[in-house]
Design goal:
eight-stranded antiparallel β-sheet; membrane; 468 residues; PepSY-associated TM helix domain-containing protein; disordered N terminus; alpha+beta; transmembrane; transmembrane helix; single chain; PepSY-ass_TM
């Protein structure tokens, strides 16, 4: 008995493909985002990594290059601060004394900061270095910022921050900070989404080995990248302004001591700061009295005495230690009576203000000193390696003479609506607060959609020509 052969017709039921899981649906989308963000943003990240490496190393270089100005032989006893300031003014009579940093250590010089000196850049001061034991001036250099950066570190700092292009140049560093965490997060998802056997480096070659190195180093460095991205955004131009506004609305803004003499110890909301320069009512002798009042309130070295702008403003003495443990206490002192009119302790800062201060100082390499700087240099090197490996993988994806094939389009179409809609809403909100993430992402999506539509129409015309 023979059996009739089974035939398959068009009416036969076809197997239904299972719906993609969330993991399977999101992976192609994350892969495409990680790929294109890496290719397009990597040049900015590379510049930020290289200049950041130089900045982390600049602290130690500064100590070597400016050793003559920064250090002195230890003497028997330090002279009154008024004599040291008078010696600095005699050597540099131009400008006005805006602040004084008394010698914080036995072998350190005193810095007398002068504002309004011809030839000194805007926002910079001229630091006159005085031997606290002999009142001899050991030199003068431009200084910038709260950490007292001297010319070498200032130049590297500005290179890292804005490439010496001013405010417009800051867009590059904000773009890098805005995308670094996105690229790192996407890499983590992709790496841990791979099977364990596919993550190994030993015994592999070609693109798989490059991928293994890229993924392994990326996983170990990811936490550092998240930190650098978050802290970098806190003082960026656009995202930083949004963060400041959010902190202020939550009552978490960084307070400051009130420099108004009329404050009378009532703290006046801790809103004013003393700045400016010497006035007719200001004499160098005031500084010894002011410093003694601050010492009586427990302000230890290092400190900076900010000279009032006019007779109605108090001196502000503030601790300027940014290394751990932070010393950021400050007091306002009436120059007439020598009494403290207001005080502010770092322990009383709101939590977010403390976290911001610690984060910025760690990002700058001062919070934990040399260890902090070595860690930053290691992170910078990791980022450079990841970028090099990333571009190499792109090259290895090419065929024959082609340079790197892109990830196929249409990944978002695989994402279920119940996931895609909330995801798009979250990205829109995030893009509003971090505009140099949101705007480039919107441009990328728009260009990608247009290119996809062009490719689709060309494909239809080609097929139509073949049929005809």
């Amino acid at each position: 008995m023979s059996t009739a052969p089974t035939t398959t017709t068009d009416d036969s039921p076809k197997p239904v493909a299972p719906a993609p899981t969330r993991k399977a649906a999101l992976r192609p989308l994350i892969l495409r985002l990680h790929f294109y963000a890496g290719v397009l943003v990597a040049p900015f990240l590379l510049v930020a990594a290289l200049t950041g490496f130089l900045y982390a190393a600049s602290y130690q270089a500064e100590k070597i290059v400016y050793a003559h100005e920064l250090t002195v032989p230890v003497g028997d006893g330090k002279l009154p601060l008024s004599e040291q300031v008078a010696a600095a003014r005699k050597a540099h009579p131009q400008g006005a004394v805006s602040a004084v940093r008394p010698s914080p250590e036995a072998d350190a010089t005193t810095r007398v900061l002068l504002s309004g000196v011809p030839g000194v850049g805007e926002g910079h001061t001229l630091a006159v270095f005085v031997d606290p034991y002999t009142a001899k001036v050991r030199g003068s250099l431009e200084q910038y910022g709260a950490t007292g950066a001297l010319p070498l570190r200032t130049w590297i700092d500005e290179l890292h921050r804005d490439l010496h292009l001013g405010e417009n140049g800051r867009l590059y560093s904000e773009l890098a900070a805005s995308w670094l965490w996105v690229i790192a997060a996407g890499g983590l998802v992709l790496w841990f989404g791979r099977r364990r056997a596919q993550r190994k480096v030993r015994g592999t070659s070609g693109r798989r080995r490059t991928l293994g190195l890229h993924g392994t180093v990326g996983v170990w460095a990811a936490a550092g990248f998240f930190f650098l991205s978050a802290t970098g955004l806190t003082w960026s131009t656009y995202a930083g302004a949004n963060i400041d506004e959010l902190r202020t609305s939550l009552g978490q803004a960084t307070p400051s001591v009130s420099a108004s003499v009329a404050a009378g110890g009532e703290h006046a909301g801790h809103t004013g700061t003393g700045s400016g320069g010497t006035t007719a009512s200001t004499t160098p002798q005031d500084l010894d009295k002011i410093l003694a009042a601050a010492r009586a309130e427990g302000l230890g070295d290092p400190v900076e005495i900010v000279v009032p702008a006019d007779a109605s403003t108090a001196y502000v003495v503030k601790q300027v230690q940014r290394s751990w443990p932070e010393k950021q206490d400050s007091v306002a002192v009436d120059p007439t009576t020598g009494k403290v009119t207001d005080e502010l302790h770092f322990a009383d800062y709101p939590l977010l203000a403390k976290l911001t201060r610690w984060g910025i100082d760690a990002h700058s390499g001062v919070l934990f000193g040399l260890v902090n700087q070595i860690a930053l240099m290691a992170l910078a090197l990791c980022l450079v390696l990841l970028i090099v490996w990333g571009y190499r993988m792109w090259w290895q994806r090419g065929r024959a003479s082609a340079f790197g094939r892109p990830i196929p389009r249409g990944a978002w179409q695989q994402v279920p609506p119940q996931i895609l809609v909330p995801l798009m809403a979250a990205v829109a909100v995030l893009g509003y607060f971090v505009p140099l993430l949101g705007i480039p992402l919107a441009v990328f999506v728009a260009v990608d959609v247009v290119l996809g539509e062009i490719a689709y129409r060309r494909g239809k015309r080609t097929q139509g020509g073949q049929v005809a």
